[in-house]
Amino acid sequence: MVTGTLSLVAASLTVANLMHAPAVVVSEGITLAAAAQVLDQANVGAAAVLDGAGRLVGMVSERDLLRSVGHHIDPATTSVADVMTRDPVTLHISDPVATAMRLFRERRFRHLPVIDGTRVAGILSIRHVVRVAQIEQVRPAGSAPSELAPRGLEGVAVAETSVGDVRGEEGFFHYRGYNAAELARRCSFEQVWHLLVNGELPDASELAVFSERAVAARRLPEGVADMLRQIAVLPNYTPLSSLRSGVSLTAAALGTQPTLDLSPEQTGADCLRIAALVPVLLMRLHRHHHGQRPVDPDPDLGYAAAYLHMLTGTRPDPAAARALEQYLILTMDHGFNSSTFTARVITSTGSDIGSALTGAIGALAGPLHGGAPSRALAMLDAIGTPERAEEYLHAEIQAGQRLMGFGHRVYKTDDPRSTLLREVAIELGGTQVDFARHIEATALRVLEQLKPGRRLYTNVEFYAGVVMNSVGIPRDMFTPTFACSRAVGWTAAIAEQAANNRLIRPSALYVGPAPPREIPDGYGVKSMAATSAHP
């Protein structure tokens, strides 16, 4: 039987109508292992934490417990007080559900304690609210969906992640809670790489160990070098498609196994190995294609400097290496973008890391995802001189053309990556940088005139092309360079998916001819055989 649920507005519900009551509670002194058992037995996602006097002092959730495991915290000896959210925001038992919805949306909470006087009366989960907020039908398992998600899954959360997040309205994104732009300003590539895959910024000794492992991982597996030479001379060569083939080949040579069969430690080791090899593969393919002898990665150089060294054959200027490093840090991860989602879907099947990374590169190859930096630079070339800027941009916008380097699916304000890359470009200097700044200012003014209220801002691709061009990276290598940094984010997402996996298997809303359709006369094995026998 199919029944309908009430809308949030029609229901006029209070928090008391939806909360889980009585509240599941734990004391602040119990261990994480004991708290996990309480949550499991009660089949809830969070518990209120009480002190010795029975007062609410915090909240602990399954995500807190998972995060502690990821940080190698011993659940048998660590107390709830060490990981809980202290002094949590609360709801009153008589609050309307609309108040809870606003808190869930604006503050990104998933569970809120509900207070009645001085006691904790219950806990409200975002799932309770979503259940009545969505106007949809409850349908039997296995039946066809009756409502279609927004096109492109915009605004739909499909998984939980602790790797990072993008807050488009705020113009902010982070890696594991750290402002990503500030990480790019202050940290090295290896420090941020460690953060993404291990959960924390490393101290000096941890960084030394991690860097040593990353350098050792740059060694190509046996037999791959010769085959890269063959890929590089294929007809219709493009750097990104060749990199995709190189990654697939390398994964096969490494014998990467299904993540379903691996321990988290082995998954992490395999992720590090293949992520470290991506720039080595790319640069070998590039130099082979141009008839140049490959340059082995210098173990004394960090990731970004080694990248430029493998490209040119000479040690890079430190300023150029640092500029590239900042770009690479900014592009390591960016939420559930198309390529990261692709990597997670493939991993959800239990497939190997090489397959997931190959699929991610395929998604990145699309010009709507990773192919815009060179196109933004091509626009500067087409404009040519500052005097032509306004006329050119007016004509493009009025003709319905997209301005490459402006507007973003997520950001509705300044893209923080573009803001920092503008600073990096200015530090590098040069006539192209000055020209780019003039085009940016003109484009924003023209967009405001012709598309008022659209909130179109400069995105990462605009200054990414300028920075990469300034440090000597060829234009056809812009997106492959992006792929090298994003490989770190992809592998972090792969490891996270593998550690807490469930097969990603959405439904589709069928819109074709109504079934069942009758098969026309004359079709069938017997009649077709007869037709063949008597032409």
Give the low-confidence spans.
1-11, 134-141
CATH architecture of the largest domain: Orthogonal Bundle
Q: How are the strands of the largest sheet arranged?
A: 2-3-4-5
Tally of helical segments: 23
Fourth-tier CATH superfamily name of the largest domain: Citrate Synthase, domain 1
Q: Kindly provide the name of the CATH class of the largest domain.
A: Mainly Alpha
| Radius of gyration computed on alpha carbons | 27 Å
**Major sheet attributes:** 4 strands, mixed
Structural class from helices and strands? alpha+beta
Strand content: 5-15%
General shape: globular
| Helix content percent band | 40-55%
* Straight-line distance between termini: 53 Å
Q: Could you report the average pLDDT, rounded to the nearest whole number?
A: 86
Number of domains: 3
Q: How many beta strands in the DSSP annotation?
A: 12
CATH topology of the largest domain, by name, is Citrate Synthase, domain 1
Secondary structure: elements and pairs:
Blueprint: E1 3-4, H1 8-11, H2 15-18, E2 25-27, H3 32-42, E3 46-50, E4 56-61, H4 62-70, E5 85-86, E6 91-92, H5 97-107, E7 111-116, E8 119-125, H6 126-133, E9 137-138, E10 164-167, E11 172-175, E12 178-179, H7 180-186, H8 189-198, H9 204-216, H10 224-232, H11 239-254, H12 264-289, H13 303-312, H14 318-330, H15 338-348, H16 353-364, H17 373-383, H18 389-398, H19 416-428, H20 431-450, H21 460-470, H22 478-499, H23 525-533
Parallel strand pairs: 2-3, 6-7
Antiparallel strand pairs: 1-9, 3-4, 4-5, 7-8, 10-11, 11-12
Helix pairs in contact: 7-14, 10-11, 10-12, 11-12, 11-16, 12-22, 13-14, 14-19, 14-21, 15-16, 15-22, 16-22, 17-21, 18-20, 19-21, 20-21
